[in-house]
Structures are given as C-alpha cells and as structure tokens.
Amino acid sequence: MIYPIVKYGQEVLENPTEPITDFNAELEKLVADMFETMYAANGVGLAAPQIGISKRICVIDITSGQDPGAKLVLANPVILSAEEEQVQDEGCLSLPDFRAKTPRPLRATIRAQDLKGQEITLSGEGLLARAFCHETDHLDGKLFIHHLTRLKRESIKRKIRKMAKAGEW
Fold first, then answer.
1. CATH code, domain with 60
2. Which of the following is catalytic: 11, 18, 83, 135?
C-alpha cells in the first residue's frame, strides 16, 4: 500500500515518536508499505511520521531500489557517533520542491533494531550518514530545515505559508 506523504506543517512531523515495542507481522507490513511508498516518491529514506504514524521506525535505501541488499530497516535508532562535516544539497519528501545546502556529519554510526528486534550497529559515510541523521531527526520531531540558518528557514516557511494560502500545499 502506498501512503500519502505528510507535508510540513502537520503536527506529527514535529513531535518525538513512540518507541517500537512489538516486532510482529503488523510491523513487517508497515515496513513493506514504507518501502513501497518511499520508492513511489523517489526517496532514499522514509520515517514513519512522514506517513502520519508516530512510531520510531524508518527505512533507508540509498540505491533507490537498485540493490536489494542495500535496504535498511531501523527501529528505535540512536546516533552513536558523528564525525567531520559535509554540506550537501538536501531535500525531504515532506517538503517537496525545497532543497538547501545542509550541514551533516560525513560519517555516522547508528544503533537500532532490525525488523526482528535484534540490535544492530551500522556505520555509514556520505549519503548513508546523511540518511541516518535525516531519518533519525524525523523520529525526534525535527526536519532538515532546522539545520539551516534562521534566515533560510524563515524564507522556506514563508513560501510554504504562501503556497498553503493559495491551496497549493
């Protein structure tokens, strides 16, 4: 099932999520739907709040479905370490059509649980480190615009308010 993507301005995107405690068939179905939704939207990551579900789980595939072995499911993720810095253009499925140079760690290590509830520790660099941080931020109620300068963030918010008023958001 492909879910509609929740857009910026919805409360579910700006609140911390509830931990995953049940690793069952229902969670497996949710994760399958999250991958399907992410691929349909041409994303490389998707957090549950982006489909209106306030649960601490996200999916990542920086190959956009090209490498089935690259699919990651992260339940209850925590960033353990972040090193150096990269500044790249970043976007978000919940902020369609908006991109900005966003500082993120060049390397990141994350601890999470997999779909079966087993603890895993993963390290990534470049786009994968960015995805770890971006999706974990979603689970903490933050979006990439929170990492921008106040001026840039307010400019994006102003444009969104204008679009909402015109019925385009």
1. 3.90.45.10
2. 135
